[in-house]
Every structure is written in structure tokens, then in C-alpha cells.
Amino acid sequence: MDAAIRRTTLLVLLGWAAWSLALEACSDDSTDTSDAAIVDAGRDASTLRDANSHQDAQAGLDGGSDQDGTVHPNCVLSYGFEDWAGSADDTPGYPLGAWDEEKWTAQKEHTRVLGNCGSWQPHSGNYFLYGDWYDGSQDSCLGGTGGAPYLFLGADTAFGNNADFLLEQAVTGTQVYLKFWVIMGDGWKTNTNHCVKFVRTRWAGGPSADLFANIVFYCGDDNYLSTGGVGEGYWDGSFHLDDLGINLADGSWHEFAVWQDIARLLDDEPGPIQIKVWVDGHLIIDRDVPVDAAYVKANGPISYRHIYLLENFCGTTNDGPVTYGIDDMELCDDIPSE
Length: 338
Hints:
Elements: H1 2-26, H2 35-41, E1 75-79, E2 96-98, H3 101-110, E3 111-114, E4 128-132, E5 151-153, E6 159-160, H4 167-170, E7 175-184, H5 187-190, E8 195-203, E9 211-218, E10 224-228, E11 236-240, E12 253-261, E13 273-279, E14 282-289, H6 293-298, E15 304-309, E16 323-332
């Protein structure tokens, strides 16, 4: 009996010691997850850290694909870079493109599909799209300098869009819903203090493929979203993410979704665009964006042409790395049903 008691006591002590060591390891917060550290780390697997703190957020976000990968029937595109074949030119399902060779070359140089970059890992699966806006130094994850990415989605472009996914064919109604996951480095806070045109939709109407609407993220110390209508007017910048405790530039994956309905643009007297924006399952924006009715009538017919992701900054020079990742894109012709 004494021997059995001694063995039991020894097992308890060993278990307590193992638990203590594990707790100490988990409490080590010395990992540097800054933009500079991510850029310097490159693809060194020894620096990997799970950056998916938001992966267990509300599944579906009013629809789309659930965390188990289920795609709802009214979604016309679901893409997470999982067919990556080593280059954008050779990947069959790659849906992003550019209008000319110069922009296509820039997209391939300023972004790269990776299995990891420093502490960043894909939101799901094995790959995600990584990019850096900064062109003043080498980014080891890119293997060169960064810059404007020129990410056209659903456009009838001369380069890229190997999937031949055309927005104006896939979405024939008045509604469009885009959801994707985004991760942003702290350089969005420290290395720039301007806005980036996060999501822009354009129509096949006027000679300039004019804007339906803008969703703009004001970075730096501002941390808020703004929306604007046709002609980049009618701005409203009161949607502050800090009020909900959301920091897009915290090095974690965030769920971002945009819905819009242009039905009232088709009226005899064109009316406003309806827009909704969700971040991490929170409905941040729900408003009607006024439009210039005379301009709309003069530049028809109206249909969706393409969506531009992270189009450009609002006239700024960045002072250091401004890194981001995109994964698990979905596009639907309505707000997906749950």
C-alpha cells in the first residue's frame, strides 16, 4: 500500500511540474510582432506564431462561408489562394488582375502569396496574399520593395484573372456582398497617418468606370471608416472603430464585409446607394449614400464592373513598412442567408 501511495504522489508532483512549465512558456510575451520584425523575419519558420486570434469570431458574418468551409448558394466566388502554383501567372483560380502590363508587374512585385511571413500565418488553409505599401526598403517576405498592389477583382483585365471571373456577368442584380479576412501590421499606425481606399466598387457606365461607392479606412491615430458615393462625394466619417475596441492594425486577422444595393440608381430619378459594412461581426456602417442624379443619368447604362481592393492612399508618403494580408475572399449577389 505504501508503494502505491508513493507512486501516486510522484505522478501528481510530476504533473504539477509539467503544468507549471507550460504556464511559464505561455506567459512569455517577448515575441516582437511589429511591422519591422515581420518584414525582417521573412519566411523563417522558427518565428511563426499563431496570429489567428479572431478566427473564432462570429461564423458566417450574416452569411458567406462558415468556419467549416460551407459556401452558401448565393455566393458566386469563394477563394483563399489554396490552388497556388508558385506564381500569379500559373495559378488557375487566381481572380485578381490588372489593366496593363506595368500594373500587373507591380501587383506581382508588391504582393506575394505565402505560407507564412514572420509571425503571420494564413487565416485558414496553407496560403494567404501578403503585401507591403512601403517602397523605401527591402521587404524580405516580398524579396524586394513594396508599393501599390493594383488589386482588381472581377475585372475584364488583359493580365491576370486566370479564373475569368467577371463581376458584371456573375452579379446581374442590384446587390453585391464582398467578405474577406485582413491582417494589418502596426505600421498602419506608426508609419502613415492618411487614409487608404480599402474597397471601391465601379460601374460599367461612364468613360472612367466611375465609382459606385468608396469604403475608406483612415489609419494613423484616427482608426475610423468613411464612405462616399458617386464622384467620391458625400463623405461621412463618423464610424470610429475605437468605440468598439477594434484595432485593424494589431497584427491579427479581422473579418471585413461590405454590402451595397444600387437599385435606386435605376429609378427614373436616381436615388442613393445603400451600404452596410461589418468588421468582426459588428455592423459598423448602415446608411444611404447620396449620389449626383444628373451625373448618373448621363453616364449609363449601369452595372457592376469590378471591385478594387486597397486601391491607393489619399496622397501620402509612407515612412516605413505598411504591411497587410488578405485571405478567404467571398463575393455574393446578396447578403448570404445563414
